[in-house]
């Protein structure tokens, strides 16, 4: 496993990361909301990259995992900026972004910001615009009125917190209302038993992407995380196929 390091991102932001040298394009893994770079998919993909001699970067957004910062002070725009900063600091040439859930939204935003650097995208249950469709009207009103919303988290003991700052940032960065001007190859994996991000949103994303090279694979009994051994094998095969086609 590559060693954990920290990057001074300015102010009080020190971003934790693991960088693996190798042949490019560099794989960059983007975790989901309140997740980190030590999840099963990220670790398995890193081990595969090591075996293949491929370059890979994974890191924690500000306020997440081993990075510094207050989680509740972060916004989607802050994390988008973390992605661009880390790509700029630690990679050269083309990159392939692998985004899980909210990381799938961030990979799209990064590709729009740097089309000349992003050679391909792989989304696992990508969740663009979830600040719009992922909350009821009552929940949105709670966020606006009280400044935060707590919800039970099925994956850990601590509740999931959504702040007004994050929600408003997400609403300002919505993508699905118009064509998404991304032309690179895109691969999407989504479980049809996903209770968090309905798989139909991946079909909507396919429609909105400008690229003609978009393929989606649906796993009938797959949940949101797609972290079972077979799911991870599918992810690795998808990333490998995309890289070989570049």
UniProtKB/TrEMBL annotation:
<dbReference type="InterPro" id="IPR052382">
    <property type="entry name" value="ABHD10_acyl-thioesterase"/>
</dbReference>
<dbReference type="InterPro" id="IPR029058">
    <property type="entry name" value="AB_hydrolase_fold"/>
</dbReference>
<keyword id="KW-0378">Hydrolase</keyword>
<protein>
    <submittedName>
        <fullName>2-hydroxymuconic semialdehyde hydrolase</fullName>
        <ecNumber>3.7.1.9</ecNumber>
    </submittedName>
</protein>
<dbReference type="GO" id="GO:0018775">
    <property type="term" value="F:2-hydroxymuconate-semialdehyde hydrolase activity"/>
</dbReference>
<feature type="domain" description="Serine aminopeptidase S33">
    <location>
        <begin position="26"/>
        <end position="128"/>
    </location>
</feature>
<dbReference type="InterPro" id="IPR022742">
    <property type="entry name" value="Hydrolase_4"/>
</dbReference>
<dbReference type="Pfam" id="PF12146">
    <property type="entry name" value="Hydrolase_4"/>
</dbReference>
